[in-house]
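Recap quiz, item 2
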Amino acid sequence: MTEARSGNAVQQAFFGWSHDDNGLTVLAHSFLQREDAQRYHRRLEPHLRLRPVGDNAVPAMALSYFDFGDGTAAVLRRVHTGHSIGRNDSHAFIGPSEVLNVRTALSLGESPLWKDKVSPGYQMPGLSANLFTGGDAAIEELFHRSVQLETELVVVLSRLLDQPTAPLSVIGLRDRDRLPMVWALAAAADLYLRDELRLARLWSFSTYEDRHDASVDRLPEIVFLPEKPSSIAPVHRTIVDLGKEPTASANEAVAAQLIEAYFTGTPYTAVVQARQVAVSASDLVPHDDEPPANGRAVLAADEPVPAEGHQQLEEVRRHRSRSEDAMPSGSGPIAALLRVKTVAEFDAELGRLEIAAQLRHYREQLRAGIDVGVVDAIANFAEFTAGRELLLRLLKVLYGVEFEDMAEPAVRKQAIKFIRNGRSDRLAMILGGTARRNESEPVRSAAFERLAAMGNPVTPTLMHRTERAMRLAHRRRYLSAAVVVAAIALLGFAFLLGYLAGQPQPAQAVPAASQPVAPPETTSASGTSGTLPGLPALPVTGTVNSTPDAGHHLFSFVKVGIRYYPQAKCSSLGNGGWRCEWRSAPQARSGEQAELVAVAVPQTQSSRLAEQVGNNEAAIRGEDWGPDLPLAP
Amino acid sequence: MTESAGRRVRCPICADEYPWPDDPVISLFDEENDAYQLVDVSTATPEKQADLARRGYRECPNPSGDTPQHYLPATYVDYLAPLVIGLVGAPASGKTHLLTAMIRQAYMGGLRAHRITTAALDFRRHADFRSRYIDRFEKGDALPGTETGVVEAADILLLRGPGGERPVTFFDVAGEDLQSTAALNRSSRFLVGANAVIFVYAPEDPLETKEAAAPTENRSFDLAVERLQGRPAGTDRLPVTVAVTKSDRLRYVAPADRWLRRGDEHMVDATRIRAESRDVFSYLHHIGAGASLGPFETFKRCTLHFVSASGGDAIPVGGRGNLDKHFARGVRPIRVLEPLVSILAMTGMITGPEASKVGLP
């Protein structure tokens, strides 16, 4: 248990079906002691299974967050794969609750750290707590998605305020809206509950449960169910069924104001003042006979409100005043990008940035927060470390994780062929370097010969010496740091020289880290001439045949990469025909292709899209949008 | 209500014993709010009182205070001593499929040949069981693995037959809970109050388990047998049965094929049951599943049966990685009532000279 409490590491455990143990159990973990993994298995065991409710399909993935109340917490991701239904796989991060707080849990929804499958017995690594900090882009995304949930948020929050100590079951909310709702509820109401009702909720949650009655141990505070399950045991929770008419609530006005404050960043004190007029304070004090729910604490009147509550309010304010904030260089997404150690992490961080960077002002902030040193560091990772990691992964796929296949003569022969005849010097060098593990002299010699042919001053003799030093360092750990650093620097220098000298011209198009980056070619956004590759001269008009779903209509966009620049609402020609207009071309980076598309969008979003037309501002593609319909102008 | 007042009853859920209350206040379940409402029925007419009691509940006081709030049907003690039947078996051995097929067959009149009728004693619990399991089973869908941590009974039926009217409570908990050595695990507490046990064993598919031989231990059986042996009443009078589930996999394997072809039996014949028990014993011994014969060696009254809850294996539907499975030809339960019939014969629900000999050496 102490491992999970330690401040610098987050442990992980993977649960699934084991034929050896004949049951759903821990398949792999990072704990030093298996007993610790088993202890958390016991805690999470009643929550591992994805079981259907009624005729509803089980979701492909469900995320849960548990605060165990002993300083540790867990974020659990269940997937609809594994042995059989109800015996699915799941992956948990377990660590100190100050690291794995609800904000972190919510930001992990799409994290690349999650694994869908792990080999039984695999020693999972403990993860640095640093990997779980940040997540600003994910939270930003949740905020944006919550904007469309205003009605539901008011209904749910007013019922929550009716019984502020009771856990909450929400029925009938779409799967993709569940994380945004939890974030919005916590961000909108946490500080209010702490300051006004002296009540600290944990905001633990589960995006999918098939039961919620009193017999379920350690059920999170907020759970989502696809429909009301039949229950034998009583249910001691506030139930909000969004498929039914909302129950009248005395707190509806307060809830509406809190949600409005959440969206606008208004200090919630304004809400308090409104509340003092609308509702008497005694109406909101928990009943004496209503004990605090599991882990939830009622704060004493003189107890200071924990800082994290204020942090959440600050979070809300920050969302709404982004343009006023400067991007801090030591934290935030750029810092997260600098912290990455693997291609997967780099890709994930970049993906988060891509989503957020659809907003122009966010890009401005990003640019303001970086300098040449930061760009160099990132470029160095992308060009060297990432490239090497990818090639190494490829070679492990070909020859085994320990390059054990290299022991076979036929495999060695093929590897030598790759080294001698392949175009990639870097791959050849890596392949040669791996031969060390299998004492494969011919492979190593082939790599040295290629290195020498590249005009590299490093002789095989020197390489042998370096290699011996590395082996010695491996045995003598006290020497390891110095020798490894020296060897890596030497090899890296040699590889880099070979890489730069040996690559064909097009491959060198990537600018070196120290070279100034050429400004992107941009064209006038308002020009009527062809401004982007793939675009005809604008404005143009085109037609398309389509029958949008009810509540949707067609909107024209210029699509550049993953960004959608709204143009105009299409007008109906009757018989499924639509006329669409493209009026302006957006700015774009060089090399980007643009195309004209029409997309069926919900009518509720059309006014917002219309506002963005004049600003040359990209829209975020909604999940409820229809497919892209390409048009011939 | 007054006849049963003061009678001591053992709650099958928490295993505590307490005097049945005689006050006129019962709990009615409010479906809208998922909560029990206390109702004083003393002013109602006797007919209404009886009707409310039939649909009402009484909260178990759980003197030990070790179980979440739970309720028993208000008429739970209005009949002969309740029969509590627990299913014990490894995870994925087919307990839930067997229980579902068994209760479904009983409702379809499968026990009529033995002059036994089946009804729900706990209407809500049975409706819950039907919606969660029987409906899905009848649609041909494979049933999900049972969640761990379950303390509630799966179903409470009322069987009426020559031996009288008797509530029958079924417990079906996750195999992982039955294999758990955690002393605080509440899910297997039903073993304390069970007065009959169905041990469920499934011959596994070697292609699935990647194991050629049967496991050398059956942890769920071993733990349950030891706990049952530790009860004050011991093993003398506890009737048990071993059901070899998924026997459709053995439809071409002697001696299982002979029994599977017979289908459901329509009378109790102690000699025939003994012959089937002998064949099951031989089969388990032959495949090296001696560890699963523990119940037979421990309990004095024991029968063994070949059964198949669905008549075939479920096959995956949908895309790769999808866990949903379906019985492509529908479900065709085979001999699923035989273990229950043996239990009913050994507990006096089915009467007669043959019934009294069932399970004896």
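The first strand of chain B starts at residue 8 and ends at 10.
The first helix of chain B runs from residue 46 to 55.
End of item.
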